[in-house]
Each structure stands twice: as structure tokens, then as C-alpha cells.
Amino acid sequence: VFPHDYRGRWCKVYEKMMPIGDLNFYRQTLLSHAGLLHRIRREFEQVVPEIYHKEKRLPDGPDHDLDAAIEAITDLRSGVSPSEKIFWRHHKIERDVAVAFLLDMSGSTGEAISPSASSGASAEFTSTGERSHRRIIDVEKEAIVLMMDALEAIGDRYGVYGFSGHGRDNVEFYVIKDIGEEFSLDIAKRFGRVGPLHATRMGPAIRHTSAKLRTEPTRSKFLFLISDGRPQDRGYSQEGSEKAYALQDTRMALIRARRAWIHPCCLTEDKEGNDYLRTMMDDFSYEVLADVSLLPLRLPQLYKRLTT
Fold this sequence. Notes:
Elements: E1 13-17, H1 24-32, H2 34-45, E2 50-58, E3 63-64, H3 66-77, E4 87-94, E5 97-104, H4 115-118, H5 136-154, E6 157-165, E7 171-177, H6 185-190, H7 202-214, E8 220-227, H8 240-259, E9 262-268, H9 274-280, E10 285-288, H10 295-307
Parallel strand pairs: 1-7, 5-6, 5-8, 8-9, 9-10
Antiparallel strand pairs: 2-4, 3-4, 6-7
Helix pairs in contact: 2-5, 5-10, 7-8, 8-9
């Protein structure tokens, strides 16, 4: 995309609060992933939320800086006026991270995953309590539920959003948990309403998420895009110049995020992802999962590696 191809105010984004559903999905995810949940929680608790930095050569402090004290004694014996900065102290630096998770809610995420991929993992339950098939969107939601539990433990600020839409005039952006919201039962219930909708116009959704992150006062900011395929929409299709435009528009949205000191990362379950992610993600972090069921395990691992 050349500068004259990048149109300002070209798309309309409609932000909506995700309606409240029932608690079944959230509760069943925690129950069926209990072993993985415990493992993730234990690993994240090792990420000490307070980092201690040792500052040396201070005029006062709780302990003597041995090297500085020896130098001072040497200077004194040599007839040189010694430095009085012979102390050190620990400065406590708290984790200062804000992250936004952006979920693809396109129609293709309603595709059922194979029984082999879903073995040993949670399934969605109907209102009557019967087990139903497990879809890509369900695995995305499970990964986020487990991440939220870990982030609540270490205190990072986080938001969870979803996107879909149809055409540039109707990009739907759903708030599942805003960054400034405290976790509540209502937020847990919103996961019961997250489901597949329409198309996948990524660029506007990324720009809107970046705008939210830009207002955060934290030192470190991350944007995790979780999708099952390439950007696709009306006027943003798989054919000819529109196919290239879709990738370049998404790429430019990610570049602008980086210019705002936001670190983007993409996780996709599309096995053909390497074909277009090299272009779309530029030199940003991305990963193509060989098995969609690995997402609940892999997302926390990647988050921990990038933010510590």
C-alpha cells in the first residue's frame, strides 16, 4: 500500500458491549481444563510482579556497597577525599503491562474441529446440559478464559475484544472486557454470547484496539490477534488486487500500532497461514498452530515469553 492508497476515515467501526449470556461456558472451561489451569497459574505466579533493581553508590541506604566502601578506604589512605556514596538499596519496580486480546468472530470460526483435536478438552454445553460439538470460536474463548485467570493473578491490565462485520461501513467491534473494567460475573457471562458472525476485516478492528491501548499509561503494551484465517470481506476479498489490499491494510494497521509503542502478535489456526502472514505481519511476532486445540496451552506460554 502506497501513501496515496491508504484512505483516512474509510471504514465505520461500531463498538458494542457484548450482551450478557449464561455462565455455562465459563464454568465448564474452568472445570474441564482444571489441570491446565493449575499449571498455567503456577507458571504465572513465578513471574514475580515486583522486580527489584539494585542501585549502587548512594549517599545513604540500608546497606554498604562493598566495592564503593573499599574504594573510599583506599582513597582515604592515599590522602584523597573519599566519596560519601558508599551505600546501596533495592528499588521496587512493579510490572507495568497492558494487553488487548482481539478475537476473530467471523463466520468461519463456527466450523467444528475434528474429534481428534478436541479429545481431552472441554466441549460447549447446551442450555439443557447436553454436550455439543466444539468449534474454533470455542477454543479461542477457552484460551482467553484461562489467560484471564492467570492475568488476574499477576495484576496485568487487560481487555478482551471481538470483531466481525460486513463491508467497510459495518465493522462490528465487541467489548467482552474493556481494559479499565474490573473482572466480574457479568464479564464471565458475556463469553456465553461470543459466537461466529460475518466477515473478517482486520485493519479497522486493529486500529480501534490500538486506540484503546494508546490511552493506557503503562510502559509495555501488547496486542494479541487470534484468528482462523486471512482477512476477508466485501471489497477485501480473496481475488486480485483486493486480496493484496486486505493484507496490506492489515499490515499498515499493525505498523501504526508499533509506532504507538504497541507490540503486536498474531496466533492463527489456519494451516495455510505462513503463505500470507509473512507479508501481513512484516517482522512482528506470529505463530501458526498445527492443531487448533493447542491454543489454550500456547497462548499463555507466548504471553509469558513476550512480556517478561
